[in-house]
UniProtKB/TrEMBL annotation:
Subcellular location: Cell membrane
Lineage: Bacteria, Bacillati, Actinomycetota, Actinomycetes, Geodermatophilales
Pfam families assigned to the protein according to its UniProt record, in alphabetical order: Polysacc_synt
Main location: membrane
KW Transmembrane helix (keyword) present: yes
Organism: Klenkia sesuvii
Protein name listed in UniProt: Oligosaccharide flippase family protein
Membrane spanning stretches: 17-35, 47-72, 84-106, 112-131, 152-169, 175-193, 231-248, 268-287, 308-329, 341-363, 375-395, 401-422
Length: 436
């Protein structure tokens, strides 16, 4: 690679870190404002709205973003892929919304919240599934600048909304939630203005032994070649198990916990999650990079070596937050939030494990083996469910943090074993998805 190529790659990587880091950094800035404006109980109410939407939106996507990205990166017509992915997203999202509304009634009764208000907010689940599918188009085309811009716009608008409400003295959790959702909808317009142009997602790895090694990830398809709805749905369904299980591993605690604990304890845990999630910007970028690079059939050790800078940044962020945690929490959030510290430290350890688990799962998905990536995620999901069954009613923030730590450990071990013994270096299984 030439010096110019290295420079451009470094600039793109730095831009992605800034864009993806903007969200968690805004979370760090706004979290003290939310804590002081709402208190532990109000913070729990805010989390009951926003975190459920985050989890349900990911579940409603049903593996469609992964299928969208892979099919576009393999050269299928962007317009056709978009049409199928959006129609499928709507079909999958509506049942999830209904299920979430029914669950919201249980949460409302347990925490003393308004069920109709929750039902209105949860409509964002449908919009979230559609937006995620659209993101898959841009990721598959390799034109990640538009995704970076969307992230940056969302972070900026969310910050402005929280600061504005805080400055006028608002103490309404629904008002802060509405502000965040409005920012999400406005920012998503960035990726809806047009479809991405069709071009190879990225250069192939030099050590590739696949057909992609000659210049692009996967063979270039004809612009007129139709996308098989059956093939697309089969890939989505296979990837969905892993996608849903992976999200559940990372977020199921925030969905289950409101039905098992008090509003105050849930408020403590939501703050701990906000702090511990900041380093996951590195995990998100690592997975995004690996899923595209893995299509080129490079060895796993080469894939990890080429993304070492991202890994180092992620670990460094974990260490920095752990060091600053003790003086920062009482200073920024107030003494009422001191119970957040132990749970955050546990979740920071889980964050490091999560980053690598997401990376290994992304490699399996990039190889066109969503079923195998699903096995790792399902293993973690089983551990999560078992953990909450064991803890039961009266779960605390620390209990939830320990369950998350164990869950991510199980997921990482399972993914490692699948890569070691599961034949991840075989020829792309997506050819089978096409019926070849």
């Amino acid at each position: 690679m030439t010096n110019t190529g290295v420079t451009r790659s470094s600039v793109r990587q730095a831009r992605s870190f800034l864009a993806y880091g903007a969200g968690p950094m805004v979370g760090l800035v706004t979290a003290p404002l939310l804590a002081r404006a709402l208190g532990p109980n109000g913070r729990g109410e805010f989390a009951a709205i926003m975190l459920v939407i985050t989890v349900a939106g990911a579940v409603a996507s049903f593996g469609i973003p992964a299928a969208t990205s892979v099919f576009v990166s393999r050269g299928y017509p962007v317009t056709e892929v978009n049409r199928i992915s959006q129609a499928t997203s709507l079909v999958c999202a509506v049942p999830v919304y209904i299920a979430v509304v029914l669950y919201g009634r249980l949460v409302a009764e347990r925490l003393g919240l308004s069920w109709p208000v929750l039902a209105v907010f949860y409509l964002a689940v449908i919009a979230s599934a559609s937006v995620q599918s659209r993101r898959g188009l841009w990721q598959g085309s390799g034109q990640i600048g538009r995704l970076d811009l969307e992230r940056a716009v969302y972070a900026t608008l969310r910050l402005l909304g929280v600061v504005l409400l805080f400055s006028v003295g608002s103490q309404s959790a629904p008002a802060f939630a509405a502000s965040s959702l409005l920012a999400f909808l406005v920012a998503s317009s960035v990726i809806w203005t047009r479809l991405p142009s069709r071009r190879p997602a990225m250069p192939a790895e030099p050590n590739s032994q696949s057909v992609a090694a000659k210049g692009a990830i996967g063979p270039t398809r004809s612009r007129d070649e139709a996308v098989s709805r059956h093939s697309f749905m089969r890939y989505s369904a296979t990837a969905a198990v892993g996608t849903i299980a992976l999200v559940a591993n990372s977020r199921l605690d925030q969905v289950i916990l409101p039905s098992l604990t008090t509003l105050q304890e849930f408020g403590f845990y939501s703050v701990a999650v906000t702090l511990a999630e900041v380093p996951l910007i590195a995990g998100t970028l690592l997975a995004r990079d690996l899923i595209r690079r893995a299509v080129a059939e490079a060895k796993v050790k080469d894939l990890l070596r080429r993304t070492i800078a991202t890994q180092i940044i992620g670990v460094a962020l974990v260490v920095a937050i752990a060091v600053l945690l003790f003086p920062a929490v009482p200073l920024l959030y107030g003494d009422a939030f001191r119970p957040v510290i132990p749970a955050t430290l546990i979740l920071l350890m889980a964050t490091v494990i999560t980053m690598y688990a997401q990376g290994l799962i992304a490699i399996l998905q990039g190889r066109g083996r969503p079923a195998k990536s699903s096995v790792a995620s399902v293993a973690g999901l089983v551990a999560t469910v078992m953990g909450y069954v064991y803890v039961g009613l009266g779960a605390t923030a620390i209990d939830a943090a320990f369950i998350t730590l164990v869950t991510q450990g199980v997921t990482l071990v399972a993914a490692s074993l699948l890569l070691r013994f599961g034949g991840a270096s075989e020829q792309l299984a997506i050819n089978k998805v096409r019926g070849k």
